[in-house]
Write a structure and sequence with these properties.
Blueprint: H1 2-18, H2 36-42, H3 54-57, E1 63-64, H4 67-70, H5 76-82, H6 96-114, H7 125-150, H8 181-202, H9 216-230, H10 233-246, H11 271-274, E2 282-284, E3 287-289, E4 298-299, H12 301-304, H13 313-316, E5 319-320, E6 334-335, E7 342-343, E8 346-347, H14 348-361, H15 365-376, H16 391-405, H17 411-421, E9 429-432, E10 438-441, H18 454-459
Antiparallel strand pairs: 1-4, 2-8, 3-7, 5-6, 9-10
Helix pairs in contact: 1-6, 6-7, 7-8, 8-9, 9-10, 9-14, 10-14, 14-15, 14-16, 15-16
């Protein structure tokens, strides 16, 4: 049965790559899982983690391309994304971010639809509840990822703007229109509310053997993230506190060492940190990218200037002025990570930072500094604890730490969108390509939103 299920999953992936209906991902005649055991094993497959927010990678102002590294962008859509183009995909090009997310939403819908009446197989009633809870939670996470990529930021003035289609049933012929941003967030919260008691009673605090599956800590982590995006900062404190109560592990970078001293491209001697599924800080795995070396991903000068280049171990362990082949990139620095997966999912460092930000936004600046110090002492050599001065200074420091800790994950672009929605000042960014053309990203611009591809809209005119 295990091999059969793997064949089913592979078939789903292969067929969906070439199918004309963006929701039509199960081929006719394919064996469909029928028991709780089958559905549990479907959720055990890590394919769901791949390629999240890849469209945002080159849009993020904290990633910089020199003429040399820009010329290494062989995919035209990536060049256009770096230029903040509003139509990066042509009529024949697939947007894998969109296709893959809806592919997995179909799987979660299938489980939700069938799990109550499925036979147990080699599972228990507790497993039925857990699997059902996971499916609801996973669907919520997929919609959170989608709405933050393909729509404007949640705010009271944006609730009626177009979000993404809400596929909640098994309907292969559906050509859905876009739900509003408000409706998508409502559905995310409904799914998490259904999942919460099911996981609380039946799931682990943290699924260490399959970190792409939600446990209790990751469920509350997503609840905290949703609350943060909605500007409900008190709830963000409550949920992030709960998440950290269930699981709060942090690596101590002071214990890390490079395989070849002085060469970040040699990798770390600790293997589980770089590995995608073994990373103990990752509590809900969704990776953006592994190959940050082809071409090299450069730190923007503004981001590079934020690091203490002597004591910040995130810099000394993960930056270089040469690419993986030894080509000189100076005066620029690249993100030197040969076998390291950057996470667009939920990690404990992100939860610490959410907790700190939500606390300072609810007038608990000293509490924010305390939680920030807990993270910083694991990241900075010769660390001197931060002292609370005032809320504004603390908030600015937290924003900077988010940029440094979550670099090359797409989170910075999403953060800029929500800061603007909060009414806070963000910069206007400019870029120049090797031809000398200048491109601008202004606060609140539609360029912060990934457009639905022309190929998808041609298939489903209801998305226009």
């Amino acid at each position: 049965m295990k091999n059969i299920l793997k064949i089913i999953i592979i078939s789903i992936i292969l067929v969906s790559c070439n199918n004309d209906n963006f929701l039509d991902v199960i081929p006719n005649g394919t064996l469909i899982p029928q028991t709780v055991e089958d559905f549990d094993m479907l959720l055990e497959d890590p394919f769901v983690t791949y390629g999240v927010w890849t469209n945002l990678n080159y849009m993020d102002p904290d990633l910089y391309m020199s003429d040399l590294t820009y010329s290494g962008l062989t995919d035209m859509e990536r060049q256009l994304q770096y230029e903040w183009d509003e139509s990066p995909y042509g009529l024949t090009e697939d947007d894998r971010d969109w296709i893959d997310r809806y592919k997995y939403i179909y799987i979660f819908n299938l489980i939700i639809s069938e799990i109550d009446n499925a036979g147990l197989g080699n599972r228990t009633e507790s497993d039925r509840s857990r699997v059902k809870g996971e499916a609801y939670a996973q669907r919520a996470f997929e919609y959170f990822i989608l709405v933050n990529e393909y729509a404007h930021q949640y705010s009271s003035s944006n609730l009626d703007l177009a979000g993404v289609p809400l596929s909640l049933e098994i309907d292969l012929d559906a050509k859905l229109s876009r739900a509003t941003i408000g409706e998508v967030y409502d559905q995310i919260e409904k799914d998490l509310d259904v999942a919460e008691p099911l996981l609380l009673e039946n799931a682990e605090n943290h699924n260490e053997t399959a970190n792409f599956r939600p446990g209790i800590a990751s469920l509350y982590g997503l609840k905290a993230l949703v609350a943060l995006h909605k500007g409900e900062f008190g709830s963000a404190v409550t949920f992030s506190d709960k998440s950290l109560e269930y699981y709060d592990y942090l690596y101590d970078y002071n214990t890390f060492s490079l395989v070849t001293p002085g060469d970040p491209w040699s990798g770390l001697t600790i293997q589980d940190f770089e590995g995608n599924y073994d990373n103990m800080e990752c509590i809900w795995n969704r990776n953006l990218k592994q190959a940050h070396f082809d071409p090299a991903s450069l730190y923007s000068p503004a981001l590079a200037d934020l690091y203490d280049k002597t004591n910040d171990l995130r810099w000394t362990l993960f930056s270089s002025q040469t690419n993986i082949d030894g080509v000189d990139l100076s005066p620029n620095y690249c993100f030197a990570a040969f076998n390291y997966y950057t996470q667009s999912g939920i990690s404990t460092p992100n939860i610490y930072l959410i907790n700190a930000e939500a606390k300072v936004r609810t007038s608990d600046g000293s509490g924010a500094i305390a939680i920030l110090n807990t993270l910083m002492e694991k990241r900075i050599a010769n660390f001197t604890p931060l002292i609370y001065v005032d809320d504004q200074t603390t908030l600015q420091r937290i924003k900077e730490e988010r940029r440094k800790e979550l670099r090359m994950t797409g989170n910075n672009l999403i953060d800029l969108k929500r800061y603007h929605a909060y009414g806070e000042v963000i910069d206007t960014y400019t870029r120049t390509n090797p031809s000398g053309e200048v491109f601008t990203l202004e606060p609140g611009s539609d360029k912060y939103v990934v457009p639905i591809s022309e190929k998808i809209k041609l298939i489903n005119p209801n998305l226009n």
